[in-house]
Write a structure and sequence with these properties.
The longest helix has 19 residues. Strands 2-3-4-1-5 form a five-stranded parallel beta sheet, covered by helices on one side. The radius of gyration is 23 Å and the shape is elongated. It has two domains: 161 residues, Rossmann fold; 112 residues. The protein has 14 helices and five strands. By secondary structure, the chain is an alpha/beta fold.
């Protein structure tokens, strides 16, 4: 898979249900004016949007698959196609001015293709006035244009927008598929399975983890928390040092708390954490179900406090002592 990502929908990893829905629409020629791709971040929604756009405008399409070789496909591969537009949040927000500008752009015909495809990423990041402006376009879509909206599945999207789109569900990939994608992207084969497991089926999230020191710090923190030789009353300095290092992750703190939740959840369900690169069970502390549930609650409290802009160092100190 050295040429990954593929323009062919069938060449993309996982998401069999999404593939079937899109292939049926393409094969039957019944293409809605708007799709909503809903699923976790980093699982390939934008890649699927690109594959669908390429198939719609391929000059030598085979069934529901883009050929990958025609002039249109080559432009899609290089992200240089004049009729493929991606709109992403700026500083976490899609503003009304950009949606109004899009409405103007859609009044003109596509430059060279049968259908112009516009991808609006993370539409849950739209402010209400922007969402209402987009509704006008969805209610009266200009000819020869198709919108593909993507949204994080855990976030709320305006119900009136959802009702005007064909919803295509996406889920996290298997650990095997995520590992294969990571290896194709240059991640070392021995590191890929751990990153895939920690990212819970999101290759995008796994690649972000790879480019930070988060995993190494997570291993150090969990190693100390599970070490029977470490006593929270005696070894306060060790815990405080780790809490300071964790607080230093700043904007990556929510992701780090997510890694801690995976670790505790695995313990709760009796899954051996050796596959995460942690010590054997006989070399770790053990906790009962009530204690593990309390640890999950401590992580949730830390996330809430972080969202309220509480002091990061203090939040991390309290959390690590609670996880001891």
């Amino acid at each position: 898979m050295s040429d990954y990502p593929s323009l062919s929908l069938s060449g993309l990893y996982g998401h069999d249900k999404a593939k079937r829905l899109l292939n049926r629409s393409l094969a039957a020629g019944r293409i809605p004016h708007a799709f909503l791709f809903r699923g976790p971040d980093g699982v390939g929604k934008k890649l699927f949007a690109k594959g669908l756009a390429a198939a719609l405008n391929c000059r030598d399409r085979r069934g529901a698959e883009a050929c990958g070789l025609c002039p249109s496909c080559r432009k899609f591969k290089s992200m240089n196609h004049p009729d493929f537009l991606v709109i992403s949040p700026e500083k976490g927000v899609i503003k009304i001015d950009r949606i109004r500008q899009l409405g103007q752009e859609l009044t003109y015909p596509p430059y060279e293709s049968k259908i112009r495809v516009v991808v609006l990423e993370d539409v849950q990041a739209m402010r209400r006035e922007a969402a209402n402006s987009l509704l006008k376009t969805l209610e009266e879509p200009p000819d020869n244009n198709m919108l593909i909206l993507t949204a994080e599945s855990s976030k709320e999207v305006l119900a009136t927008i959802v009702s005007r789109c064909q919803v295509v569900p996406f889920a996290g990939l298997s650990t095997a598929d995520t590992s294969a994608i990571l290896i194709a992207r240059g991640v070392a084969p021995d590191a890929a399975p751990l990153l895939a497991r920690l990212a819970e089926g999101s290759p995008g999230r796994a690649l972000l983890l790879q480019h930070t020191e988060m995993v190494a710090l997570w291993k150090e923190v969990v190693g100390v928390l599970t070490d029977p030789a470490v006593d929270s009353d005696r070894d306060v300095g060790i815990i405080l040092r780790l809490a300071e290092a964790v607080a230093g992750l700043k904007e990556d703190l929510p992701a780090f708390f997510g890694l801690l939740r995976i670790w505790v959840r695995d313990l709760l369900f009796g899954e051996d954490s050796v596959h995460l690169g942690l010590p054997d069970a006989h070399r770790r502390k053990s906790w009962n179900s009530a204690q593990l549930f309390a640890k999950l609650q401590a992580i949730s409290r830390a996330e809430s406090e972080l969202a309220r802009n509480c002091n990061k160092n203090l939040v991390c100190e309290v959390l690590l002592f609670s996880l001891q």
